[in-house]
Structures are given as structure tokens and as C-alpha cells.
Design brief:
about 475 residues, alpha/beta, 6-stranded parallel beta sheet, 5-stranded mixed beta barrel, 21 strands, binds S-adenosyl-L-homocysteine, binds iron/sulfur cluster, binds FE3-S4 cluster
């Protein structure tokens, strides 16, 4: 390789490596006399799902063909480590991959994502999973082509995990699952350090993208047929700052960009864009201005995901959430006063260290008072390295399981009765796909994020159709076109 010709600047550098890899993939294809395939499996949140679209974009560019079977030539696991069971799942899959690789020794196995940011995981892979070929973390996913190129040249395990983002490289290929909707990163990382949560350690410090870059990307997406965007960040309500970091510490210099509500207004101005969603909102930073923009802008979906985690003020303090039960409930009141029919969803953790029955009853109380359209419930999972992992009074497993069941029963009953309020209403449904069970039906979502199935064919995919929500079937509706 002539190092003088390798571009230093991104994204040119990655395009250079993509071209190099393309040639190598072509050679391999000729040698094997068949196409080369890839399979990307994603764990975790929307951030990871969106990162996977970037990885797939690069692999497509290199000439690999996507399949949804792990028996592929290039296998990627984009991992999550937010809870213990996410980790366990990966190790289970690796055992299976080892067998597949015995049959196809040229198979390249690549692990990336949040779990790879943990030192003990990388050590385990180095010592026990030597058949894994490429490992990288959350800060350098853009370098996939460069890392593959190194692998092709040296044919031994490549591990490149960075402690923090040296740079963020956009403008690389992306392969979207849906042509008509897309996630858009507006910020990376998290500065909140909720005491149970590993995300700030594996995703690094918060950093917002510049509004002009975000708008450029959205305009491009719309020109390609996108109608709905989901603005992504761990806490979109604190959008708007670029910090200058030195040695991992925040410098005093901080560049203020634009507030999140102002960004939303700009995004809504994009012609041809029909729907704007965002995720996730931290209650402590949710401003009156955001509520106003949501009430005023018809493109912003009538849905807010507002995790409360626990209803107990004591536990919230231990969680470092920086709001009380009362503050959360009055925030919900304020939102409902401004946008009466808004669909509210949330995340709840059961069994945080020190949680008493009384604390848990406070959580149930919030559930009863707010009446969520949907709630994602999690059993507290100890994450090594977080402050909560060393807190006293970890709650016994049987107590947690009992509370979890009681919570689940109430949450499901409430969301079942909430969703019924839409019965008989006509809503715009953005059609996403053919129904998996019945090909005479299509499946889509309303602005409230309700799933609707109704008679139709693949020509409707990507179209927005007015549908009568005729019959509520628990968590979804069976509907009928109005025209
Ligand atoms: N940034 C988002 C959440 C990202 S993680 C926010 O603050 O809302 C998604 C959810 O996983 C969290 O809302 C929380 O409910 C859950 N979670 C995070 N860490 C957890 C842990 N250690 N145990 C159980 N659930 C956890
Ligand atoms: Fe985790 Fe809290 Fe950051 Fe969300 S806001 S990612 S829960 S630390
Ligand atoms: Fe998991 Fe990482 Fe998301 S830990 S929840 S994939 S930010």
C-alpha cells in the first residue's frame, strides 16, 4: 500500500478504503465463483439500529449482499450492554458462529457497539473468542472499511476500541430499512450519569451535531423519498451544545448552537417532510418552549416518550434523575393541558437498590395517574462501573419479580384501555410493509405510533392513507381505508 496516496481527511479516507476493499471483495467473489454475503444483527436502542444502517451502507458499497441468515461471509454483531441479558445473548450467539465458521473458514466475524467499549469484554474476546476477527466500539464505526482493509492485509484479529470520539464522520453510505422513514442523529453521547446506567460510559460525552449538518441530511433524505424522520439522542432536550473536551474533561469553552425546540421548528420547515419524531426526552430538561412547538407544529407527531424510571422521589434522587415525583406529574399535566390527546409512553425500572414496597407503590401510583399509552418495564440490572452497582440493599430477586409482575399487569391493562379511545377514529397511517401473517393486509403507523393493519397491497408501502380504526385488537387496530 502506498501510504502517500491515502487521504488524511474524512470522509475521503473511508471512500479510499472502500474502493480498496471493493477490489479485494471482487477477487474473493471470483475465487469462490459466488456472491459474498453479509448479515448484521443489532441489539439495543434506536441509536444502534441507526448505526447498523451505516454499517450496512458500507458493506453494500464493498459489494457484499445482505442476507438475514448468520451463515454469511461477513457477520456483524452490533451489541448493547444496557442490561446484563443483552451481554448474555451475545455470548450465546458466538458459540453458534464458531460452528458456522468451521464450515466456512473464510467467514469474517465482526463485533462492535456498546459492549465493546467495556474493557472486560474485549479481554474475554481476546482470550476466549479468538475466532472473532474484527472488534471496534461506538466511536469509530465509520472506520469499518479501513478496519476490513487492515484485516484483509494482515489476516489476524483486529481490535480498535477508542475511549472517546476523536471525530464524528458523517456523509458515508447508509442503508435504510425503510425508504420513507429514517433516524437522524442530532447528538451523540450522554452527560447525565443516571446512577444505574452504563450508556454515558460506553457512548461518551454529549456532543450535538450542527443544525446546518442535520438539516442538510434531512433535505437529502427527503429528496430520496423520506417522509418521516426520528431525531435521535440520549437526551434530545439538552440538544444544542458543542463542548470542547480535553483529556476527557469538559473544557469551559462551550459553543452554544441552537435549542432543541428551535431545531424542531427548522426541521419542520423542510418541504416534503410529513412527520417528525424524536427520542428520548429527559424530563429534567423538557422546556415550556418544547411543549409550545409540539402543540403548534402539525408535522411533529402527537407522541412523547418521557421515561420516569421510578415514582419514588427518594429513589429518583438515588438514580440521579434530578426531578421529584411531583415535578414529573406536574410536567405531565402541563403537557396534557397544551396537547390534550398526546400519546405518552415511558420507561420504568423495578428493583433499583434500596427500593422499598412503599417506593414501588409510588411507581404504581404514577402509572395509575398518568395512564401511559405504552410503558417499557425493566428489571434493574447491575452494571459494573456504575454508582448503583455498589449501592447497599440490592433488592432480592423474588421481591423484584413479584413487583415486576404487578407492574406489568397494571401497565398492560391501562394501555389496553387507553388505545381503545381511538376506535372509530380516522387517522393517517404511513404504510410500512406487507403484513407478515396475511399478505392481503398492509401494516403502518399513525402519528401516535399506533400499529394499524388494513386491506391493501405493496403499492401502498410508503404512502400516507386515511384509515378508519375499526377494531381494537389489544395493542393494534384492524382498519379500513376511507377512500
Ligand atoms: N437516554 C434514555 C434511555 C436510554 S436506555 C433516557 O434517559 O430516557 C433505555 C432504558 O433502559 C432507560 O430508560 C431505562 O429505563 C433502562 N435502563 C437503563 N439502564 C438500566 C439498568 N441498569 N437496568 C435496567 N434498566 C435500565
Ligand atoms: Fe442513561 Fe440517564 Fe443518559 Fe438516559 S439520560 S442514557 S438513562 S444516563
Ligand atoms: Fe444499548 Fe448502547 Fe443503546 S448500551 S440501549 S445500544 S446506547
Amino acid at each position: 500500500m502506498d501510504s502517500n496516496t491515502i487521504p488524511v481527511m474524512e470522509p475521503d479516507r473511508q471512500y479510499y478504503f472502500m474502493n480498496k476493499c471493493k477490489e479485494l471483495v471482487l477477487d474473493l467473489k471470483a475465487k469462490k465463483n459466488r456472491p459474498l454475503t453479509y448479515c448484521v444483527t443489532t441489539f439495543g436502542c434506536q441509536m444502534n439500529a441507526h448505526d447498523s444502517e451505516k454499517l450496512k451502507g458500507i458493506l453494500d458499497e464493498l459489494g457484499y449482499v445482505e442476507i438475514d441468515d448468520e451463515n454469511a461471509d461477513f457477520v456483524v454483531y452490533n451489541t448493547c450492554t444496557v442490561r446484563e441479558n443483552a451481554n448474555k445473548k451475545l455470548y450465546g450467539h458466538l458459540g453458534h458462529l464458531k460452528n458456522l465458521k468451521k464450515k466456512n473458514p473464510d467467514m469474517i466475524i465482526c463485533l462492535c457497539g456498546c459492549m465493546m467499549q467495556e474493557k472486560h469484554v474485549v479481554e474475554t474476546i481476546k482470550s476466549k473468542y479468538k475466532f472473532v476477527d474484527i472488534v471496534f466500539g461506538t466511536h469509530n464505526i465509520y472506520k469499518l472499511a479501513e478496519l476490513i482493509n487492515i484485516y484483509f492485509n494482515q489476516n489476524s484479529q483486529i481490535i480498535e476500541v477508542l475511549d472517546k470520539s476523536e471525530k464524528t464522520v458523517e456523509e458515508l453510505p447508509q442503508k435504510r430499512k425503510y425508504k420513507f422513514k429514517s433516524g437522524v442523529n442530532i447528538m451523540y453521547g450522554c452527560n447525565n450519569f443516571c446512577s444505574y446506567c452504563i450508556v454515558p460510559y460506553v457512548r461518551g460525552r454529549e456532543k450535538s451535531r450542527r443544525p446546518e449538518e442535520i438539516l442538510k441530511e434531512i433535505n437529502l433524505l427527503v429528496s430520496q423519498g423520506v417522509k418521516e424522520v426520528m431525531l435521535l439522542g440520549q437526551n434530545v432536550n439538552s440538544y444544542g451544545k458543542i463542548y470542547d473536551y480535553t483529556d476527557g474533561k469538559m473544557d469551559l469553552q462551550e459553543e452554544k448552537l441552537m435549542s432543541f425546540p428551535d431545531l424542531l421548528r427548522e426541521v419542520c420547515k423542510v418541504d416534503g417532510l410529513e412527520r417528525v419524531r424524536f427520542m428520548t426526552s429527559h424530563p429534567k430538561d423538557l422546556s415550556d418552549e418544547l411543549i409550545k412547538v409540539m402543540a403548534e407544529e402539525p408535522k411533529i407527531c402527537n407522541h412523547l416518550h418521557l421515561p420516569f424510571q421510578s415514582g419514588s422521589t427518594d429513589i429518583l434522587a438515588k438514580m440521579n434523575r434530578r426531578y421529584t415525583k411531583e415535578q414529573y406529574l406536574s410536567l405531565v399535566d402541563k403537557i396534557r393541558n397544551a396537547i390534550p390527546d398526546i400519546s405518552l409512553t415511558t420507561d420504568i425500572i423495578v428493583g433499583f437498590p434500596g427500593e422499598t414496597e412503599e417506593d414501588f407503590l409510588d411507581t404504581l401510583d404514577v402509572v395509575e395517574k398518568v395512564k401511559y399509552d405504552q410503558a417499557f418495564t425493566f428489571i434493574y440490572s447491575k452494571r459494573t462501573g456504575t454508582p448503583a452497582a455498589v449501592m447497599e440493599n440490592q433488592v432480592p430477586e423474588d421481591v423484584v419479580k413479584d413487583r415486576f409482575q404487578r407492574l406489568l399487569t397494571r401497565v398492560n391493562a391501562i394501555s389496553n384501555s387507553r388505545i381503545k379511545r381511538y376506535e372509530g377514529q380516522i387517522k393517517d397511517v404511513l404504510v410500512e410493509e406487507l403484513n407478515h401473517q396475511d399478505n392481503n393486509l398492509v401494516t403502518g403507523r399513525t402519528k401516535e405510533s399506533i400499529t394499524v393493519h388494513f386491506p391493501g397491497d405493496s403499492s401502498l408501502i410508503g404512502e400516507t392513507i386515511a384509515v378508519n380504526l375499526k377494531e381494537c385488537k389489544g395493542f393494534y387496530f384492524l382498519g379500513e381505508r376511507t377512500s
